[in-house]
Design goal:
Blueprint lengths: L1 H14 L4 H31 L3 H14 L3 H17 L3 H14 L7 H4 L5 H9 L2
Amino acid sequence: MIRLICAAGLAALLVACSTEPMRGIQSAFKGIFESNRGEASLSTGVRQYEAGNYVEASRSLQRALDLGLAAADQVKAHKYLAFIHCVSGRAAQCRDEFRKALDIDPSMELSAAEAGHPNWGPVFRTVKAQR
């Protein structure tokens, strides 16, 4: 936590600098902070999903993707978005989210419990078989 506070302070000090080397440092810090925000939004979205708050979860998951995530976290966000679309009766969007996840990680699999779900299990299997 202290490290993050120090980094934020350093980043704030660097904002006023406009030399080329300083812009590179600013860019590096910006990527760190955006990544952390993406991960925080992903975590929030998963919690909202698990609580059954699908509208809020969709917003948080999409925000996480917009802020930037590592590949594995992108797959997770798309998977949860697919689940939300499937349980909401939006089969086309469900398929699209599974496709996006599989584009990032073609070896992606659902857990046994997820694969057995009557709404998204068959959709996932169909999308994966079409690849």
